[in-house]
Amino acid sequence: MPDKFAALRKKYLSSFPAKLEGVEDAWEKHDMKLLHDLVHKLAGSSGGYGFDEISRQCKNILSQLHESKNTTTNDIERAINQLMQLLSSAQ
């Protein structure tokens, strides 16, 4: 069973470049609905595959998006940049 999970996790990991590109594109286009949807999906799926730090960062971004009245654009951008670094360096 662990070998099967390792294979699934590896396949999921290979999807990170596309996920990173999607998040980056949504942010650059200021498409907050798409950004929210992508980050929300990533928050759930990444945790399920053992990428807990990525999941936590996604939840942080979602929280900031929900409370955008109290959060600056710079804070959200900083959080997204941290997420992109996590996705780029994940193993």
Describe, in short, the structure shown.
With 91 residues, the protein is an all-alpha fold. The protein is built from 5 helices and no strands.
Features:
91 residues, mainly alpha, Four Helix Bundle (Hemerythrin (Met), subunit A), 81% helix, 0% strand
As for the number of domains, it is: 1
How would you classify the helix and strand content by structural class?
A: mainly alpha
Quaternary state of this entry equals single chain
In the CATH hierarchy, what is the class? Mainly Alpha
Secondary structure: number of strands = 0
Strand content: under 5%
Which fold name corresponds to the CATH topology?
Four Helix Bundle (Hemerythrin (Met), subunit A)
Overview of the structural elements:
- The chain has helices spanning 2-13, 16-28, 32-48, 52-66, 73-89.
- The chain is 81% helix and 0% strand.
- The model has no long low-confidence stretch (mean pLDDT 92).
- The protein has one domain (2-89): Four Helix Bundle (Hemerythrin (Met), subunit A), CATH 1.20.120.
- The protein has 5 helices and no strands.
- 21% of the residues are buried.
- With 91 residues, it is mainly alpha-helical.
